[in-house]
Amino acid sequence: MSKQKIRWGVLGCASIAKRAVVPGIKGSQFNEVRAIASRSLETAQATAQELDIPIAYGSYEELVQDPELDAIYIPLPNQLHKEWTIKAMKAGKHVLCEKPIALTHQEAEEMLQVSREMNVVVAEAFMYRYHPRYAEIKSLIAEGVIGDIRLIRGSFTFNNGNSTENVRFVKEWGGGSLYDVGCYPISAARYLLGKEPIAATMQAMFSEKHGGVDMMAAGLVEFPDDVSLLFDCGMWAAFRNPMEILGTKGRIEIPFAYLGKNEQEGHYFVHTDQGIEEKKVDYLDTYSLQADAIARAIYGEEPLPFPLEDAVANMKVLEACLQSAENGARVTLNQ
After folding, report:
1. Which family is this protein grouped under (predicted)?
2. Dihedral of the CA atoms 305, 235, 47, 293 (nearest 10)?
3. Is the whole model's pTM more than 0.70, yes or no?
């Protein structure tokens, strides 16, 4: 007997929702999109028609209270993540919330507590890590193919500097490149190493033209056993998103670590004394994989691969990085 599909509502008409997440949910195996909301009914109706979504609401509250919905996707600006995730959870809904999950780790911990009280599934929207290539890479590291890990390098930059009005440029709303894209290499390094950082040291370019947020940041995140993540992130630089894992016997190169437009861009390379091996992987919609992983957790078939506790831990590192960049000092993390 086939399962009833998880019925999703979308809280807002953000570009990421229209461009990637809604098509991903619609193209997944166990999910469907039933409703979308905006603060403007006209905007919600236009987006619903564009994306072939049956129901449009002119307020977020109406969507959250819809008894016919099982789960809510939240692509709202960062400062609204906590408020609407908690409202959705208290309405008995499961939640997929855009990254970063909150503005502080204390906010994330509060969200975690409510998720436990309401017994709902809550996921942070890091779609890239649902692609099986990351599990493959982690297995190669565990097997010792490249020896002991000495260093991870990661970057995620794009150029949005010419924009004059953008929620990413409002400091009080969780704007800046660290929160927008720096969170990716941090989450990837934590996943691949299976450890939590102990300190962060960052330098950043804070642009008054862009609301005083960090438009570019670079630095060092220290992990146990003398392993480090060197990473940079930016919203005023050429696009790139590579990652390299350096070991004592070789290295793994991921040219497109988080975003790739086609199958070839998903491939990664293992460099050892035996030469360079190109690891070819299938091109898969990671947004669909993410939705189906959440659905399986909702069904009770298997636990969510990246539970909300992971989001709390990632927020702690992000906060430390931003604090270091603002104060020009190394910041230690309490484990």
Report:
1. Belongs to the Gfo/Idh/MocA family.
2. -10
3. yes
Instruction: State both tokens at 253.
Output: 């190169």
Q: Give the residue extent of every domain in the chain.
A: 6-127, 130-288+315-332
The DSSP line for 316-330 is HHHHHHHHHHHHTS-
What is the distance of C-alpha 181 from the center of its chain? 8
145 vs 259: CA distance, rounded Å: 25
Along the 335 residues of the chain, how does pLDDT read in single tens digits?
A: 468 999 999 999 999 999 999 999 999 999 999 999 999 999 999 999 999 999 999 999 999 999 999 999 999 999 999 999 999 999 999 999 999 999 999 999 999 999 999 999 999 999 999 999 999 999 999 999 999 999 999 999 999 988 877 889 889 899 999 999 999 999 999 999 999 999 999 999 999 999 999 999 999 999 999 999 999 999 999 999 999 999 999 999 999 999 777 777 889 999 999 999 999 999 899 999 999 999 999 999 999 999 999 999 999 999 999 999 999 999 999 76
Distances in Å between the Cα of 202 and the Cα atoms of 12, 21, 39, 183, 216 are 33, 31, 38, 13, 10
CA dist., res. 45 & res. 173, Å (int):
27
Signed CA dihedral, 195, 201, 205, 208: sign only: positive
Tally of CA atoms within 13 A in the half-sphere of 163 that contains its CB: 13
* Class of the domain covering 6-127: alpha beta
Domain 130-288+315-332, CATH? 3.30.360.10
